[in-house]
Amino acid sequence: MPRSDRLQATLIGTTAILMWSTLALLTALSGNIPPFQLTAMSFTIAFAIGVIFWLKQRINIISALHLPLKVWGLGVSGLFGYHCFYFIALQNAPTVDANLINYLWPVLIVLFSALLPGEKLKWFHIVGAIAGFAGAALLVMKGKSFSFESQYAIGYLAALICAFTWSGYSVLSRFFGSIPTHSVGGFCGVTAILAGICHGLFEPTVLPIGREWLAILGLGLGPVGLAFFTWDYGVKKGNIKVLGALSYSVPLLSTVLLILFGLAEPSSSIILACLLIVGGAVLAAKDYF
C-alpha cells in the first residue's frame, strides 16, 4: 500500500480514538441506564448506521451479512465480548483497578502487531506505548495505588481478558483486510441482540428521560457506533502500532471533556499525563518523521 494511503487510513482510524474520548461524558449524561441496556440501545443505532450504508450503496443486506464464520466469531467476540467482560470487571473489582488493567490493550496492540506480516516492531514503538500507559495510569489511578487483593481476582481477570480481547480483535482484523468495513454493521447488530438478552436476564429496564435520549443517540452515532467502522478501516489499512500508541489519548481527552463540562477537577497530574501520552504517541509515530 502506498505510504500516503496508509497515512490516510491511520488518520481515519484516529477519528475512532477522538470519538471514544466522548464515551465517558456521554455515558455520564445518559443517566442511570443499566450497562447492558445502554449497550443494546447504542449498538442498535450503530447497526442502523450499517443498514443506511448498505441501502445507500445498494448493497444487498443478505449478502452483506454472508460472511465466513471465523469473521463473525472475531467481530462478535471483539465487540460484544469486550463489553461483556468490561462490565464483569467493573462489578467484581474497584473501577480504578479494572480500568488500569483494561488499558493494557494499546500496549498489547503495539506488541502483537509484530506478529503481522510486513510489520516490524522497533524500540520507539515499545517505549512510546509504555509512556502512553504511564500517562493513562496517572489519569486512571488519580493518586491511588494499585494493590492486588484476592477477593477481586475475578474482576482483575475479566479486565485482563478485556485488554486481550480488544487488542486481539484489532490485530487479527488485519488478516481479514478483504472483508469490507461495512460488515461491522452486522457485528453491531448481533452485539445489540446479545446485550439485549443479557439486559433481560440480569437488569431492570430504565426508561431514559429528557436529554438522556440525546446522549444515547450520541453514543450510538459516535463512540459506540461510527467509531468501530473507522477503527476497523484504520487497523486494516493503516499503521496499527501508531494507532495503538495514540489510543492512550482517549483517557486524556476524556478527562479534559469531563473538566470542561464540570464533571471533573483539573490537577497537575493531568499535565504530566498529557506530556507522557503526547510524547509517547509522537515517539511511536517516528516512522512518519
Task: Please summarize what this structure is.
The protein is mainly alpha-helical and about 290 residues long.
What's the average pLDDT?
Answer: 88
Radius of gyration of CA atoms, rounded to a whole number? 18 Å
Uncertain stretches of 5 or more adjacent residues: none
H and E string: HHHHHHHHHHHHHH
Question: In one word, what is the shape?
Answer: globular
* Terminal Cα span: 18 Å
Distinct helical segment count? 14
How many domains? The number is: 1
Helix content: over 70%
Structural class: mainly alpha
What fraction strand?
A: under 5%
Beta-strand segment tally: 0
Largest sheet: none
Per-chain topology:
Layout (H helix, E strand, L loop, with lengths): L2 H18 L2 H7 L5 H22 L4 H5 L3 H24 L2 H8 L2 H8 L10 H19 L11 H20 L11 H19 L9 H26 L2 H7 L2 H12 L7 H17 L5
Helix pairs in contact: 1-11, 1-12, 2-11, 3-10, 3-11, 5-6, 5-9, 5-10, 6-8, 6-9, 7-8, 7-9, 7-12, 8-12, 8-13, 8-14, 12-14
